[in-house]
Amino acid sequence: MNQTEPKMSLFDRIGGTAGVNRFVGQFYTKVFADPTLRPYFEGVQLDKLQHMQSEFFSTALGGPSTYSGRTMQHAHQGLHIHPEQFQAFVGYLFETLQEHDLSEDERYAIIARINTSADDVFNTGIAPSE
């Protein structure tokens, strides 16, 4: 790429909307296969989860979508997620990112963006501000 070409967003690098949808599907296949994470998704409408996560990742990657779901704090309230589970979740995220044509710096940039929500996933004893 020469210096006059605009830099592609992470959203574009992962394949746009179709790429994000494919990525989310691959990622949740790993998450649901983990017996320590699967119970957190019991009773969850999977099509709604897929849609919300596609919006979330699209937004986090600089795409045109806007996340319209509940706040992270509200969505995770009462789940009692521990750092070990969050770490496993992020591990599957990184594994899935490695399956895509992204540089190591890009993968870590995506992880860093997702990690900004970690406090809201853990600090769920506080009433949501919605």
Concise description?
This protein is mainly α and 130 residues long. It contains seven helices and no strands. The radius of gyration is 15 Å and the shape is globular.
How would you sum up this structure, described in words?
With 130 residues, the protein is mainly α. The chain has a single domain (10-122), classed as Globins (Globin-like). Helix content is 58%, strand content 0%. The chain has helices at 10-13, 16-33, 46-60, 72-76, 83-98, 104-115, 118-122. Helix 2 (16-33) packs across helix 3 (46-60), helix 2 (16-33) packs across helix 5 and helix 5 (83-98) runs antiparallel to helix 6 (104-115). The longest helix is centred in the first third of the chain and has 18 residues, at 16-33. It is globular.
Attribute tags:
single chain, 130 residues, mainly alpha, Globin-like, 7 helices, 58% helix, globular
Please give the count of helices.
7
Largest sheet: none
Approximate helicity band:
55-70%
> What's the N-to-C terminus distance?
44 Å
CATH class: Mainly Alpha
Order of helices and strands: HHHHHHH
Write the layout of secondary structure elements.
Elements: H1 10-13, H2 16-33, H3 46-60, H4 72-76, H5 83-98, H6 104-115, H7 118-122
Helix pairs in contact: 2-3, 2-5, 5-6
